[in-house]
Amino acid sequence: MSEAALPVPGADPTPSTVGSQPTAGSRWRLVGTLVAGVAASAWLANAAWLPADPLRSTLVLLPALLAGLRWFSHLVPRARARTLGAQAEVAALLALVVLALLRPRLGLGLGPQVLAAGFACLLLLAGARRVLALRPLLGQRVADRPPFAFALLAFLVYVAILPWSTEQRPPDGDEPFYLLVAHSLAHDLDTELTNNYAEGDWKPFLDRPLEPQPGDPRGRHGEIYSRHNALLPAVLVPAYVVGGKLGALAAMAAIGAALAWLTVLLAHHYVPDHPGEVLLAYGLLTLASPLLLFSVQVWVEVPAAVLAMIALDQALRLRNDRAWSRRRWLALAAPIVLLPFLKIRLLLLALPLLVLAWWHAGRPRRPLLLMAGALAAVGCGILVYNQVVYGNPLKIHSLDELQLDRYPVVEYALGLSGLLWDGAFGLFAAFPLWLLLLPALVLLARTRHFLLRDLLILVAPYLFIVAPRSEWYGGWSPPFRYAIVALPLLALALVPLLAERPGRRAAGARALIASLGLLSLVLTVVWLAMPGWTYNFADGRTYLLDHLAQRFDADLARFFPSSVRPRAATWWWPLASLAVVSWLWWRPRARRRQAALWGVGALFATAAALPWLAQSAPTAIVELEDPWVEHRGGHLHPGQWVVDRTRYRGGWVLRPGEWASARIVTGGALVGIEVDAMYVRNTPDPVELVLLRGDEELASWRATSDRVWQTLRFGPFAWPSGEPLVLAVRRPQPADGLDGVIVDRVRLAWRGPLR
Amino acid sequence: VVRRTPGRSDKIDGRLRPPRTDTTPLKPPSRVHLPAEVSALLPRLFATTLAALAVAAVAHAEVDPAAAAEGWVLARLVLFGLTPLALVRPLDQRTLGIVSALLAAVPWLLPAGPARGAVLQLGLAAAVAWAGVLFVTRPPVDTPRERRAAALGWVGLALAAQATLLGANELIAPLDPAATARLLVLPLVGAGLLALLAQRHHPTGLLTASAAALLLAPGWNLTLLTTLATFVAVSQLLPSEGHASPRLGRLAGGLLLLALAAARPDTALLAGVAAAIGNWPRRGSTTPQPPVLPRLLLAPGLAFGLLLVASRWPLLSVPGAVLPSPAWILVLFPAAWLAARQPLRTAAGLALGIAATAFLREEAALSASCLLLGLLGAPTTTALARPEEHWNRRLLAVQAASLTAAWLGVATLAGYPWLREQPLDELVARLTLAPALSDQQLSPLAAAGHLALAGGLAATPLPAALVPALPALVELVDRGERQPQPIPLPGGMVVLTAEQPTVELALARPLPPGRLYLESHATNLATLAEGTPVASIDAAAAASGGSEGLLRVGLETADWAAARPGAEQALAPVAWSWVPAGGGFYAHRYRAEIGFAGADRTLVLRRAPGLPADVALAISRLEWQR
User: Fold this and answer.
1) Which of A441, A440, A454 is nearest to A498 (CA)?
2) Measured between CA atoms, how close is B414 to chain A, in angstroms?
3) Distance from CA of B422 to the nearest CA of A (A)
4) Are A285 and A488 in contact (CB under 8 A)?
5) What is the C-alpha separation between B69 and B75, in angstroms, rounded?
6) Which residues contact A170 (CB under 8 A, 6 or more apart)?
7) Could you give the ipTM of this predicted complex?
8) Do A107 and B62 touch (CB under 8 A)?
9) Which residue has the higher pLDDT, B339 or B486?
10) For an interface test with A, which of B37, B46, B74, B120 has the most A Cβ atoms less than 10 Å from its Cβ?
11) Rounded CA separation B8/B13 (Å)
């Protein structure tokens, strides 16, 4: 067979996998299916017999979702194949539905989260199967207008998780305020929220009282406004009017789906000759966090990424044709100008986009000046408006925040590494398969691919401002919030790596992909089943590790990086992961199909070693507020909901009669102990901080200096392994009062060989 | 030295790669040379074994001793249930990895308690079922290497099924030789017998039959193995595709049958009759006829519908003698495999199946007997290996067979979490046409009906496939309106002791007549005889025959440690179980169903008078149902 006659996926699908081409009759049948699906969901929504269960809304949505999948199959011939896998999907779905319906009566003790995990797992696997079914649509070269099916699939996946996600995690963080502004725009035609707060207009989408955020701008007569801009709420208004909260969230899902589609569109410019790898990147972007988690939430980052990618696409088109048509002008300038309307900080994305457009268009002067003028006019307009309405041109911000020299270099390092590696807010922690980005970026740099240059120009200024901020992690949100704008380009950055030879087929790469992929699958199922676990507090811990630490009575968090609470792992993880992932990808080059299972085995071995390590590695630092520390009285300091909490040293307050105890693993013959503590004095009688080894008192410290952090040094002491270290506060003279000692952390320095 | 690799199509790239010529010299062979099959299995065994290690690590690290004890049970369950699946080669490495990761993640993520075990066991059951489906749908075996792989597949499935069905009970205590034999030796023998049968019969029927038998038994036991051995013997006596078996084979089969007759005359007699029916001269074409889906699904559908009718209108229920057990389903299903133009053979097969239900009523291998009788008339391996020459809807048959197995599987698993002490008894109670099946007993059947619906939709456009599902759907909808209503207990639990013998529950509204469900467990019942009242529920009047609102030892409640070795007592129906610290036995909470004539405003829970002072009863859940 000659090369020319070789089969092309898009042109010569095999009969076993491809159904007949759509006809007019099949289209009508499709319309009927869609109508029937929506009608069935509407009927189920009002069905009294359907149990009032956390999974009810998911079950209600199922018919409409299945109809949507029928639509997808209509567009994608390969998805119509009746393979064994397709039948297994149907069987698994029905089994889950039956379990969900009969859950209370089966006596198996299956919580709704368990079944939600089952649904999530099925969704991800079915989604992955359909992603692969899209392959023929890409042909041999990525077209400049990807088929609609790419957006539809992403939309269906996002809508599928919407009911459960919303049920378990009502709008949180900035979300309810965006919805309230949308409500105000829809009903009052303004953005002034005084009456909306007073009348409780948040009740349709929130089951807790909503109050203005601290520092929200006020009008000249005390009117309450939101710190958030009105563009996103304005976009959501039609959907909100039609479907309320769910309508608005579905609109966000549509925006997320548009982003997935735009990523494939951009692949046409950056990596058009690798359609298979583009498909894998699309699958990763669509089915993985963070886009999966943000897709049904109201944040400006996803819409901002959509606008940025539209502008970037137009800029890249100029690279080829240099045609400044009126439509091109509009398509390029509109998203750039709209970005600051979403959020003023997004001006830092608009400017690089302008530069990129100018660069790709052959550096013309007139378009640059016109668009820069428009952008400047918009920026000035926003500043003037803010000054007039809120009395502050930057709304709630100040120019001091732009003084970058006030941040030490370490803040930049912590913020940037935190966006990627932080255990609670980092991209790699939420979905470890993204670790492939490390060798991918190395490869891009090595080959001087212009994708890397565009990526850096686009996001570097923005991240440069965001990274050193105290809220680099995004506030009360799922991980990787601020860097979502870079996500499509990061996904495309993987394409050259995956297309390498032997690349992903080499033994090391197979092992890497399998192990990271499975870990990512399990974590994503957890994030979907327990949406609340993606909202970590910025205290250096995560829900998942806390859950394990409590069960194992050991400090697991110390092995994982945190930029909020820097520790050794914060620094060695980036270096080690870069080295290990790159080595595994490039060094073992032999093609061994079974290597994937060796990788999976290694993953399990690592998991098995983790609890053992946590319980047997010598204790070096005890953070008193951690869940594995036993507390008798006392409380967290500062409170979990204190604004800008990362600016404070977190600790545990001990008052007279209260103590905290931690199991210590010995690392040497003697130990010197340092305690970071602050005395809070409210009465004349001082208190004592006592250090005990089990029941035996070793030392004490009489607090004197009020509200000053001090490092107390004790020891050295001999310390048998397993003996608890106890810190207690007592008052020598009986007296009343709210004195106490805040203990931040205890450091243990081991000396001498372990006997 | 050069080597050439053949061209192949890449699923992602979509390009057919030309043959590659590699000019790098071949490495000298290593000193340790493993056979290809073994070297291919090593990474699969490595990954699955380490999945068990990851679960064991959780158990080792748990601080709560009860959680640790339970974790060790789960680790052994994963080791014995998941690792054998590595031997089932049609289960590709991607699926094996996903299954291993998801199962290993369960003990890490879920808190200790019965739900964790239930999820793990359901996951294992699904994995075994999926491996079975892949195993029977694999291409037919031709080469010796493929035959070896198929034999290993039978071994893997048999071991995994045994661990899934029995592991939770067998693995609580440290493994003794008897438990080891039950978990390892019996399945190995069973796998060998199945592999022998597979030489003449298609794995679809074999797997369906053995899966049904294993679910009902549950697990491999001596009776089942004896029955299988009988059928191996019979199989050797039967002609294959119109040709007589080799003389040596027939001789061996006959001798085996005679040997079995000495131990199990009834089974051997039935098998001999089956062999005779199998040898009945065929008329017309010997080409197997395609199984017709309605015929396959009508039988369980009919039985299911009758079950529902019987449960909702007890007066109309069919006498138990006519429909003695679910064996009807098992008999009718394989009967459909018999050639459509062979009415006498079909009738004889049916009669034999019904006779088997009468003869072997108490046998655990009942289902195997019935199904294998049908199997003898089913298409042979060679016929199914060339479907295009015979009938091209092989997939249909596979679907129907596997879904029927799944039907039974769900009914069994839903009714028998790993917690039940007498799963077979409970299952038979569910499937037998008792006049008063409760909602809880019928729930798994509704689940099964839905699976049948799934099978119908997936397998065929025929609306007839909906037949078995519709009654289930109607029942499900109807029952949704009759959800049990919880009655709040002060503090979440009521404990009746000598110091507090009576607790009055104030009802928010009057309760009309219905049923009460109580979950309870007692302490220090060792000295009390079975049937001794421990407590009563004093409403207006309790209506159910005999119980009169009483909670009695071994009937409605029992000691929480009644399963402890050395202190065994009668168990009531179990609601929850857990492994207490130290392991070695299950602790139980019990669920009782009591007829209830209604109450106005107050419900009184009263400890029975005259009990030893240290007897206490905890009631942790109380529900009322219309």
Assistant:
1) A440
2) 6
3) 15
4) yes
5) 10
6) A176, A205, A206, A207, A208
7) 0.90
8) no
9) B486
10) B46
11) 11
Residue carrying structure tokens 């001798």: B255
Paired tokens of A442: 């190395």
Residue A244 predicted with pLDDT over 60: yes
Angle at B460 between CA B456 and CA B465, to 5 degrees: 40
Interface of A with B in 362-401 (CB under 8 A): none
In order of A181, A193, A228, the CA distances from A190 in angstroms are: 8, 8, 13
Nearest CA distance, B404 vs chain A (angstrom): 12
Q: Which residues of B touch A44 (CB under 8 A)?
A: none
* Minimum CA–CA partner of B485 in chain A: A104
Count CB atoms within 10 A of the CB of residue B6: 8
Interchain CB distance below 8 Å, B399 and A87:
yes
Percentages (nearest 5) of helix, strand, coil residues in chain A: 55, 10, 35
B231-275: pLDDT as tens digits: 677 667 665 554 556 677 777 777 777 777 776 666 666 666 656
Handedness of CA A268, A273, A274, A279 (dihedral sign): positive
**Distance of residue B193 Cα from the nearest chain A Cα, in angstroms:** 28
d(CA A98, CA B396): 24
pLDDT at B362 over 60: no
Interface of A with B in 86-125 (CB under 8 A): 86-88, 90-95, 97-99, 101-102, 104-111, 114, 121, 125
How many beta-carbon contacts under 8 Å exist across A and B? 200
* Peptide bond before residue B609 is cis, with ω within 30 degrees of 0: no
Structure tokens at A323: 């045609």
Band (pLDDT 50/70/90 cuts) for residue B171 is confident
Within an 8 Å CB–CB cutoff, is residue A612 touching chain B? yes
The verdict on A17 touching B (C-beta cutoff 8 Å) is no
Give the tens place of pLDDT for each residue, A76-106: 988 887 788 888 888 899 889 988 887 776 6
- As a dihedral over the C-alpha atoms of residue B218, residue B224, residue B228, residue B234, rounded to 10 degrees, the angle is -130
Residues 552-581 of A with CB under 8 A from B: 552-554
- Residue A276 pLDDT level (bands cut at 50, 70, 90): very high
Q: Give me the pLDDT at residue B381, please.
A: 36
Q: pLDDT exceeding 70 applies to what percent of chain A?
A: 95
CA distance A538 to B355: 71
pLDDT for residue B406 is more than 60: no
Length of chain A as a residue count: 755
Contacts of A134 in chain B (CB under 8 A): none
Residue A50 to residue A30: CA distance in whole angstroms:
27
Of A7, A607, A612, the CB nearest to B16: A7
Binning pLDDT at 50, 70 and 90, where does residue A319 land?
Answer: confident
Query: Is residue B58 a contact partner of residue B133, using CB atoms and an 8 Å limit?
Result: no
Residues 6+ apart with CB under 8 A from A504: A497, A498, A510, A513
* Least confident piece of the model among A192-196, A425-429, A674-678, B134-138: B134-138
User: Is there a contact between A472 and A418 (Cβ–Cβ < 8 Å)?
Assistant: yes
Peptide bond into B218 cis (omega under 30): yes
Q: Which of A352-361, A548-557, A660-669, B1-10 bottoms out in mean pLDDT, i.e. has the lowest?
A: B1-10
The reply to whether residue A598 touches residue B457, judged by beta carbons under 8 angstroms, is: no
- The predicted-structure confidence for A580-621, as pLDDT tens digits, reads as follows 999 999 988 787 778 999 999 999 999 999 999 999 999 999
**Global pTM value:** 0.81
For B438, nearest residue in chain A (alpha carbons): A105
A136 close contact with B: CB closer than 8 A: yes
Q: Which residue has the higher pLDDT, A331 or B480?
A: A331
